[in-house]
């Protein structure tokens, strides 16, 4: 029966993907813009990279532009990334470029998959594997099970590097700190938290702080900014894209 | 202040898009696969096409593959579309090809925007403009206002052709029938409704029935299938893509 | 890493089970007492039987006894089944036996799995495959996806016989009738519906009407009773167990 | 088509209002009585004042009178304001005047808009722009997006003075303190919080404490009272109106 | 104690209003634009008019403009009403005038109260008093009690004329038809229902059909339009205002 | 341990009550005023009467008076009942007496229990036992189980007469009609339904129609009125009390 | 019209009650058993006592007995109270008496009203009037308004003594402590909180600690126990009744 | 009537079970794998053991396997338990065995009841009886009452040993610590809390820490692990089963 043939192919394909993802070079929690850019460049460099997203669709906060007005702004230093990903932009100010947020979201996702990043939607990272004072993997569950509040055990994926790219919620770093008596590589040893808005400062800190916060655990995008107490930025996405690219460069070396 | 400069660009860009969309060649309600393919080919043919999607992201039921296993199946007759849109596929059976559903969803969206289709997310079509026994436009609202159950009046967009591509819910056709004492171009004059699953029959009917159901109103994808009483198909997407292409061909002629 | 080794085994085992279930002799929708008894006897007779249950646990309405008082009642004609399944009972009236409802629920499940029935929890049957006026399989989805109201396509499982054992809701028969213009083998051609309580009459009709209601589709337990307009029974479970056994006997012949 | 002509006018008008509001003399968060009175007097004095209200209607807690009995009480010192705004009142005690709360709410709103204050409903202030230890603007979002819990970035509005008139919730001051390591101009450097009821004391403190609490940030009405630990007042609105007037007098000088 | 003195005044004032409202010339259910205009002209003509609104604030769908863009459109024939109510407008097309929706909402309410209409918020009309085949009064309850789903009996208010101005929901006419075996003065004897959008036709029918639908019961605004099967109009408010005025003229004669 | 001694007494007492209630002369579904009055007079006459109430407290709609104003009205013909139950009243009009609704609710309950009626709270009647075309008992469940939406079977209580005193919802009659192909003793054979308000007519019909509607099944109070199409009454309770008394008189003869 | 006559009487009666309650000797927050007993004895002694209950019915946790088994236990020292209130009991152990919980709940309420206590349901105490370091009254709102989450100001009632009888939630004491920088008369100056169960100790402490906790503010019943750190008791109600009686004796002296 | 006969048997059986359970050797809160294994071995050793589970079904987190893939993993040291309970397993790695999670869940429950453990579902432990610094019993309520948020008092059960087997929520230990000023037998005297995942370490600590944490109170399974700060384990169940067995061995000695 053709219906069952179709079903069988889907199950086998998914299983193959899932089994391959159990042992990755890099696992990125969260599927927003910094994650997708990092995934693109890591995959392009030949790394085995897995992106885990709780929702059904990827792209994080990109889709809605500013206040639901579907455009976001980027600066000149991001043009090379847009050009590489074949995403259109329009010059609007001296150093400001407008991009249709739906084009940006879909373009980032499409290019990351195309480059070879393995993306899983409907998967939430609920904990980490921590051994010998080092993050060695992630503990994941199906997000629909989580939404349905069913009591079901998680499974585990192993990686040389785990990235928290979950935005200012810092979900992965938070669970690490909450469940284990540890310090991360910030001044306070704890999450400092996102400050009120200041675009230039925010973009600067995001890029600067992208990197490792605990052995085996990295932060990128707004997660990097919020972790080290940088200010928020709103619908300007340069910091996100550049942070993703920087993270990829760091990890290409390390893993 | 740079923050305000960014804000102003976004507002102006969005306003421009919105004003342009008030008078379209084609307005498609729903942003799933048949809508996106139709949008791609219509835009490519130079038509002014507007896609309206209630959710924040586009892609409809594509993202989740089958039962959340992120793959969908396509048949050989769709390969030209995939090739044109630069979307990867793998041969899996005699006539069956597996596609990563995240690649398919993002690829369809990315290509539609790239080709020039104007896509609005967070917009729901709540009614139609009907004059002289012909659909002449859509009555839309911001979907967050709808979700928040606020009592706010809608606005109107005009088009030479309106397409219901809202899947088996047939939201647009339903509101037309419920609010006006009319008949559509099915055997019963009413929506017949989706039947139980039969993949081959479903794909055949979807393609066959794609077209006009009332002066000025068209159906595509699962909406076409359900409107005329065809069976459902599950995670095989050939009918969807071919229906979108057929719709574009019809409308390129007509509008 | 041991955590990943564990994960890999679980995924592979589940995959094996799922693939095997794609082509069954009998698929039973609903995991209550009549389903489990039928599953036990079918598996014991060497049939490939798959039980699909929406909830996390099996047993249906057995666990709560009467009004949450955790006992149910059975009559003498069920003792052979209880004895075969090694479930304790206590004589309480001339022809009435009390059974701890937790023992009954767990005993029915445990014996069905032990006998070789393949049971899936967290799976909901949302539709059927109907071709040539015959039910040829079921269309299923992950119930957490359903609960989370995510728009995700289902997959398909094929069987020689499909059983609706979903209790008085008759979920499978209902979807068959609602989506297709068909008649079932009742006097009215439609579901008659459960009547008010009458224990003896209810048990008699349940047993009598267990069987085929449409080519390829069977009913058992309260689904049989409600389908043909029998009265409800409350916390007496004889009809359920005997119906399950009768169904197994019918299907052992047929499939 | 007339429907589209109407739509186009609405969009253009709103755009104009929104763009003008991006750079204001004063932005007031919250649209209750002290906000509206301040807005009235500031606009009358020629200042560019913007009021941002999360709900669909303005007026805050005025509409419901006391316990839903639609009257509020004012004292003699408020009569000049009522007279200027053309709102009716009835003498009821030595120094107490009853006002229909629906008349008061609508009268305050109507006069504020009439005087030239730009009022936005359905807008929530979710953060501030803070640079060089000074509040320089507000970070806002569409409140329906917030209610629908959609992940969408905010936009920014700039002002010489920002006013927290959000009542005892002090939403703006709270976000300033929570997100940045700062002190405000209270004795403790933090919000002191509203005390139990004492009408006379409450009205006195509300008026006295109306003013700046951080460079660029002001409090008025119950926000002033709660910020500095004054007691609540219930359905007597004199303090609210006088606080709004005082704030306007301060800001007319400053901005 | 001053707090109690305030409380006592409020209770006594409310009681007075409530007792006076028990016997009105006209009771209008719903507090949207047609209701408020009717209330204004009826009160101005010396009639005892009571407006009952379920929500905390009045104004109905006026506040949100079109799709939350806070402007509505009126035509030239409404300018006399706007001028009488002192509400600002701007000419925008040949026959189209833009009005700030917040100004319109508050202006309509403020003027209705000022003219002497007694407005109650938080009151819902849940039924009618019907005797000798004539509506003789309304059965009302506190809407918070309704929201809290508490089982509490309603009270009764008497009027010579009851108006359903609850918009296209037609709450009052619906309860009349649902609970009593009656016909109303439409062609079908039943509610015909709102049709899809057509602004000019909608405005024409709204005005034409404003009037009595059953002995003692009248319709105005969108309720008149929907009752007789007219099309919807969206954010153009001329029909609403003119309908309110026409209703007042009819009732000034009749009651 | 005293705590366990207390627990044991409670369980044993409840068990005794519950077992005794399994075989009653009269079972009344619903614990509002007509039920309690009927229960009082039946118990006083020596009948074994059981009242089943879904909520935690008894008294139905009595507690809230009219619109939450805690008074209800009774007429002179009810004074003998009030006097017998020792409930205070105040003459307020020619034939109208005001009663504190809290006194009435608690007085009706207290006297019913005192007289010997067995009252169960937290029990909902979900179905009936129907044999030989006669209602022979009720099928009940714990209402918290129902609220928690748990799948648990009900238990059964037997009675010579079952009374539906569930108000205008007519829950028991409705389940009888919905689940069985039967006619009741109204003109239509079906529930006619409550009409709009008319106090005098309502009180007359309530009393007149109190009685049997199907062999073994009776209606009282608003259930009698609504069953036969009488109008509603609001916060006047004479019909309720007299209906309860009449029902008791009928059943004292019959059971 | 009789319906309006009824309405007018109800409104006038309620208003009279409400205005009288604005100045009470004692206001008791919470309508559970200790409150009702205190109300009974205070009213009997001629004091003007007002009981305020958030729910529609009174009686607090009495109705449900233990775990929904509708009996509670009392000891010999409570028999005089039961006898005075005419409530039945049955001897069950050496010093333990079983009482039907529905009889107890209704009997306590009925007797309190009968004795002259003014009871308001649907009223919640949301704050206090505190002046000169003394509680001088309560700040109340309609609880349906609270449940409907409407932003409406409260009103005020004055009393010589305010009693927190809200059980272990201690709602009144909590708001006093949370909103004002004060200490109460416990060892810690703060609420100590209910301990785990110990019936004898619980009953002893409840009685011992019944009394004043802050100038003008008293505690009774479980509120007294929890305030001073006593253990919980479960379904034994002696402590509650005796605490209510003791409180009455204290306040008869003091107010 | 047979229906009532059935009801009576169920009530009497339940009552008998409940009364017997009031005085147990061991009461285990929570019905997951460690609880069921402990219950099995304790009952087998002749102890009177009572298991209390809040949900309708038993088995805790066992049913869902890993991420809903219905298999769990056990190690060689658990084979004797599986063999004794007649549960199937398959060797999958050097020391890893796969078990169908539905077989494991039902097998653990079935064997525990069969061995004589008295299991109650729908019962939640909301507090403890604590006297003389020792846990002497549990305070329980019907969980549907808890879910329905009804204010109903609990009842009490006495035991020589109470076990917290509620998983990492540690519901019983938490209530002990929160309500009483006490220390438990951990290093900090407080709950340490579950750490991030480490399977081997988790299994080791779970087993090691199974035992008494306060006089009369024990922990088992994940509760033991989390109480003493061990890491989580995911879908490997060896630690759970061995902890249950160890607890039984300890308590067989002690009670």
Amino- and carboxy-terminal Cα gap of chain A: 45 Å
The structure class of chain A reads alpha/beta
Per CATH, the architecture of chain A is: 3-Layer(bba) Sandwich
Helix run count of chain A? 9
Oligomer designation: homooctamer
What pair of chains forms the biggest interface?
A: A-B, 55 and 55 residues
> What is the mean predicted local confidence, pLDDT of chain A?
97
User: How large is the radius of gyration of chain A?
Assistant: 18 Å
Q: Class of chain A in CATH?
A: Alpha Beta
The major β-sheet of chain A equals: 8 strands, mixed
Weakly predicted, low-confidence segments of chain A: none
Strand content of chain A: 15-25%
| Shape label of chain A | globular
Structurally, how many domains make up the residues of chain A?
1
Describe the secondary-structure layout.
Eight copies of one chain form a homooctamer.
Chain A: H1 2-21, E1 23-29, H2 33-44, E2 49-52, E3 71-75, H3 79-85, E4 90-91, E5 96-100, H4 101-115, E6 118-120, E7 123-131, E8 134-142, H5 143-147, E9 155-164, H6 171-179, H7 199-209, E10 211-214, E11 217-219, H8 222-227, H9 238-254
Helix pairs in contact in A: 2-4, 2-9, 7-9
Describe the structure.
The structure is a homooctamer of 255-residue chains. Chain A has 255 residues and is of the alpha/beta class. Chain A has one domain: FAD/NAD(P)-binding domain (3-Layer(bba) Sandwich). Helices cover 40% and strands 24% of the residues of chain A. Chain A contains nine helices and eleven strands. Chain A has helices at 2-21, 33-44, 79-85, 101-115, 143-147, 171-179, 199-209, 222-227, 238-254, and strands at 23-29, 49-52, 71-75, 90-91, 96-100, 118-120, 123-131, 134-142, 155-164, 211-214, 217-219. In chain A, strands 1, 2, 6, 7, 8, 9, 10 and 11 form an eight-stranded mixed sheet that branches. Chain A has a three-stranded antiparallel sheet with strand order 3-5-4. In chain A, strand 10 and strand 11 form a beta hairpin. In chain A, helix 2 (33-44) packs parallel to helix 9 and helix 7 (199-209) packs parallel to helix 9. Chain A is globular, with a radius of gyration of 18 Å. The model of chain A has no long low-confidence stretch (mean pLDDT 97). The interface between B and C is medium-sized, with 21 and 22 residues.
